[in-house]
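> Could you send the Cell division protein ZapA prediction when you get a chance?

Sure thing. Input:
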Amino acid sequence: MGQVVVTLNGRTYRLECNEGEEAHLAELAEYVGAHVDEMRRKFGQVGDDRLILMASLFVTDELWALRADVDNLRAQLAEARRDKSESDQNARSVETQLYAKIGEAAARLEGLNARLGQRAGGGR
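Output:
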């Protein structure tokens, strides 16, 4: 079991974590600690619990904003995929129509070629 010692608002806390997660936990604690320090600068020493609560609410607000951004990006991605699907369908439709027109043109050319061949052969 790993351990990390962090300091928030001048108080030291010993935290346990899974092996290999120490650096990540320390980084998270540092991030929260920076917010605790910012709250202390803004509001003074209003108590550890209140400062940590305020910092936690601030970090949670950031999380909620990021979640909203992710949800928005997911919706945009889903819309882009629908648009791509519609575009792919339209492209297939245009391709089918193009092949049909090419087939019609080829049939006309073959017909013309046959008629010209008959005229050329009949004139000999």
